[in-house]
Here is the input.
Amino acid sequence: MAAVDSFHLLYREVARTCHNHVEFLAVVGALYTAKKGLCILYDCYSLMRLHVTLCLHSRRDLVQQYGEWAVVTGATNSIGRAYAEELAKCGMNIILICNKRQELHSMSEAIAGNYGVNTSFIDVDLSRGQEVYLAVKEALRDLDIGILVNHAGVYDEFPESLVEAAEDKVWEILHVNVAAAVVMAHLVVPGMVQKKRGAVVNVISGSIGKSDAQTAASRAYVETFSRQLGCEVSSSGVFVQCLTPLCVGGKRPSSCGFLPLFAPSPDVYARHAVRTLGASTRTTGYWAHALQLLACRWIPGWLCRSVGRLSQQ
Ligand SMILES: NC(=O)c1ccc[n+]([C@@H]2O[C@H](COP(=O)([O-])OP(=O)(O)OC[C@H]3O[C@@H](n4cnc5c(N)ncnc54)[C@H](OP(=O)(O)O)[C@@H]3O)[C@@H](O)[C@H]2O)c1
Here is the structure.
């Protein structure tokens, strides 16, 4: 082997013995660059299709497309409340589900008065598990349920690790974040399949920020559940969407960052999200959130995390 005493000599030596490899590596590099380029183009196209093209369309007739009634769990707060109102604006009758009777009552009256639709509510504590669904089943019997929105969820701004969390809290997360979405779908999807139309929207957080193991796992469960359920029922005309918003203004301003653009009000968010119904099986539902995710995918992770930390200070 030749003595190596300079980079130039080493380079010449390597190039002489490996010139085929260099060409091979150049082709690999070109293919990799082309693949990345195509992915960026596809991501931009998807973003435009979902958040620009759909905005140009006039409001759809959701009653005709999916059915007369929409059921919204966790309907008294933030995205759930705004989503219910948005569906009412589209002429759907609304059934609100939550555990605060007084709020349900006033919200139900407000929606009926403001949008001229029929409303009703079911006051149940979803953290109690199986026993509460008998009442829900009774209330939904014989109704033409077109859309189910699973928004009920428990979320802690200061999450406790599994080691620190009380057992009751762990059960609450399992019952409200996981079981409620599955059991509610089990109650209404068979009717949708029979009528060959309907939609299920499962709302989970799209944020990968601080979270405890049990809450993070509940998100993963609902995401997989949505995907698989979609595969099972799509041929029957039932659409399943997993909605993964990032920060929505109102309740948790501290985790939303400094740019209001990235934390729309629940009403603005719901208006955008409803437009994506039927068009994407998994979406953030809002263009600025989609942009945020896109940026996170294409810029280095450390830069993304630093900007996120900075924005929360
Ligand atoms: N808001 C956001 O910024 C945001 C962003 C991304 C994702 N999300 C997702 O949206 C979902 C809800 O989060 P959120 O922050 O919007 O919470 P939220 O404002 O507290 O809404 C949760 C809803 O679920 C209801 N709920 C909670 N426990 C219940 C129980 N045991 N029985 C019946 N209803 C119950 C709440 O009713 P009460 O308040 O009456 O208990 C409330 O209406 C979560 O999956 C979260 O990951 C929210």
